[in-house]
Amino acid sequence: MALRMRRDYALMLDTVAELEHAQTAQFAGYASLPVLIAEYLNITRNDATRMVTQSELVAETVTPIGYTAPVKLPQVREALHEGKLDPKRVDAIARVVQQVPNWAIRTLLTEAEIPDIDTMTDVLLAPLAPELYRYQRHDRGRPRGSPRR
């Protein structure tokens, strides 16, 4: 079930990117896309803003002339669509990416030839989002109150 939810989240981010590209919020009379998403999905504006930010990083977009713009983080997109990443991991990666120039991220991931998403998570999250990294790697699946490994 978790795998299906992660895949659905990836599809939802693709839809968010399409809505952003089509300027749906403006045509519908909303101040911004996060406001529209928050109202329709009954989530907080912060969560909706987070989704828009994530979609900008992992969704393909088509320009008005029909050119498909490359995804900023293709490995993250692939892992997300395979159900290997949950929204918290994507959010942590998005926080890191916002602080680093796009060219630096692409170069790092391309030159490093990172073989799988877990290795990418180790490289990106361990130093920059330690609380999430510890949860994903060490605390997940552990019964409450049991000692850490």
Average pLDDT, rounded to a whole number, is 78
**Oligomeric form:** single chain
Query: Could you say which structural class the secondary elements and strand pairing correspond to?
Result: mainly alpha
**What integer value in Å does the Rg equal?**
17 Å
Helix run count: 9
The share of residues in extended strands comes to: under 5%
Helix-strand topology string: HHHHEEHHHHH
Strand order, main sheet: write it out: 1-2
Q: How far is it from the N-terminal to the C-terminal residue, by CA?
A: 26 Å
**Tally of DSSP β-strands:** 2
**Can you tell me the residue ranges where pLDDT is under 50 for at least 5 consecutive residues?**
139-144
**Global geometry:** globular
Largest sheet, strands/sense/barrel: 2 strands, antiparallel
Whole-number tally of structural domains: 1
**Helix proportion of residues, in percent?**
55-70%
What does this structure look like?
This protein is mainly alpha-helical and 149 residues long. The chain has one domain. It is built from nine helices and two strands. Strand 1 (61-62) and strand 2 form a beta hairpin. Helix 1 crosses helix 4, helix 3 crosses helix 4 and helix 6 packs across helix 8 (117-128). Residues 139-144 have low confidence and may be disordered.
